[in-house]
């Protein structure tokens, strides 16, 4: 998925990890994605730029698209990151410059590693389900792997874990002995958790070296005593070994975590780099038609990159 802001803010990324557990509830902002889809952008926000290597989270739906085209995101580039496509309802057809053509369905993992350069498009199939509901997430690649060759993975069968009152699907990383087949390049975890109304549960074991955040996909759930509903994300800090959840309704949430990301980054539009030159060169390469390849089969023109800000893009770490 693309960041379609025509005037994207330069994001000076870093974890700003708390030294211990915290409860910081942050509200996302509404962003128009393509012609017909609105998303709630939960990362980056004014209060939080990253959670581990997770650097971008959009939550969309549930949208009734029975008589609409649904998601239509034209070909666009990525660099220095992984995209994670995650659905609860509907389907998304992925095409990329490697020649991949894959329909991603609910609770299947669509994982694209951009590495040095890739381009892709995402759209609802012509014959699609009535509802579209899911999340698009980005993971920043560490410096040692940001120039790796681009790849696309599709995993339809993901491991699940359960405790009393709680069921989880492991999207990336490992939890309670279950490990996702998705490729990762830094210590992180992503798990989709579901709870029935009125159930109380403690989450599966957490790594105290990780920082965590929880975002509601559907329903209403108290996370460590804080009400979390769709459109908000609760930053939980580090130092936790478990987490108490109370479902006010039938609810589903994403729990994201990872070791605090120590590297200094610049994230602008659909690129994650380390220097101003990285970003400017990537933009020029996309506009010139080089490096990022071509997406075949999408019925429409590719996106053009927004204008860069006049001043240099300065990499930063956690300091604000």
Any overview of this molecule?
The protein is mostly beta strands and 320 residues long. The protein has one domain: Sandwich (Jelly Rolls). The chain has a 7-stranded antiparallel beta sheet with strand order 2-23-20-25-18-15-14, with no helix packed on it. Strands 3-4-5-12-7-10-13 form a 7-stranded antiparallel beta sheet, with no helix packed on it. About 3% of the residues have low confidence.
Whole-number tally of structural domains: 1
Low-confidence runs (pLDDT<50, min 5 residues)? 9-17
Structural class, from helix and strand content? mainly beta
Oligomer: single chain
What is the tally of helical segments? 1
The CATH class is Mainly Beta
CATH arch. level architecture: Sandwich
CA-based gyration radius: 18 Å
Give the ordered list of helices and strands.
EEEEEEEEEEEEEEEEEEEEEEEEEEEH
Strand order of the largest sheet: 2-23-20-25-18-15-14
Classify the helix fraction into a percent range. under 10%
The main sheet comes to: 7 strands, antiparallel
Key features of this structure:
320 residues; mainly beta; Jelly Rolls; seven-stranded antiparallel sheet; 1 helix; 47% strand; globular; Pirin_N_dom; Pirin; Pirin_C_dom; iron
Topology record:
Elements: E1 11-13, E2 21-27, E3 29-33, E4 37-43, E5 54-64, E6 72-78, E7 81-89, E8 92-96, E9 101-104, E10 109-113, E11 118-123, E12 131-140, E13 151-155, E14 160-163, E15 166-172, E16 174-175, E17 178-179, E18 188-195, E19 200-202, E20 211-218, E21 221-223, E22 226-228, E23 232-237, E24 244-247, E25 251-258, E26 265-268, E27 271-273, H1 276-287
Antiparallel strand pairs: 1-26, 2-23, 3-4, 4-5, 5-12, 6-11, 7-10, 7-12, 8-9, 8-11, 10-13, 14-15, 15-18, 16-17, 18-25, 19-24, 20-23, 20-25, 21-22, 21-24, 26-27
Domain Pirin N-terminal: 38-139
GO molecular function: metal ion binding
Domain Pirin C-terminal: 191-292
């Amino acid at each position: 998925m693309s960041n379609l802001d025509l005037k994207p803010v330069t994001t000076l990324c870093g974890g700003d990890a708390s030294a211990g557990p915290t409860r910081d509830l942050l509200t996302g902002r509404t962003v128009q994605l393509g012609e017909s889809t609105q998303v709630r952008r939960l990362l980056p926000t004014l209060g939080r730029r990253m959670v581990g290597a997770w650097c971008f989270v959009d939550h969309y739906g549930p949208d009734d698209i029975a008589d609409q085209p649904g998601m239509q995101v034209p070909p666009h580039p990525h660099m220095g990151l992984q995209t994670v496509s995650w659905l609860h309802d509907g389907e998304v057809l992925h095409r990329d410059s490697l020649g991949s053509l894959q329909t991603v369905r609910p609770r299947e993992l669509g994982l694209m590693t951009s590495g040095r350069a890739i381009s892709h498009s995402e759209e609802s199939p012509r014959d699609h389900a009535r509802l579209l509901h899911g999340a698009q997430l980005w993971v920043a690649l560490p410096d040692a792997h940001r120039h790796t060759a681009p790849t696309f993975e599709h995993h339809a069968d993901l491991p699940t874990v359960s405790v009393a009152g709680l069921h989880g699907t492991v999207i990336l990383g490992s939890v309670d002995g279950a490990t996702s087949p998705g490729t990762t390049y830094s210590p992180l975890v992503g798990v989709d958790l579901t709870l029935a109304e009125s159930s109380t549960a403690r989450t599966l074991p957490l790594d105290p070296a990780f920082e965590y955040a929880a975002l509601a996909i559907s329903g209403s759930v108290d996370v460590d005593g804080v009400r979390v509903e769709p459109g908000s994300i609760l930053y939980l800090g580090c130092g936790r070994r478990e987490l108490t959840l109370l479902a006010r309704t039938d609810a589903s949430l994403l729990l994201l975590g990872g070791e605090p990301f120590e590297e200094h980054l610049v994230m602008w539009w659909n690129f994650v780099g380390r220097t101003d030159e990285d970003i400017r060169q990537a933009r020029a390469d996309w506009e010139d038609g080089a490096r990022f390849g071509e997406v075949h089969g999408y019925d429409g023109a590719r996106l053009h990159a927004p204008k860069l800000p006049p001043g240099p893009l300065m990499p930063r770490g956690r300091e604000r």
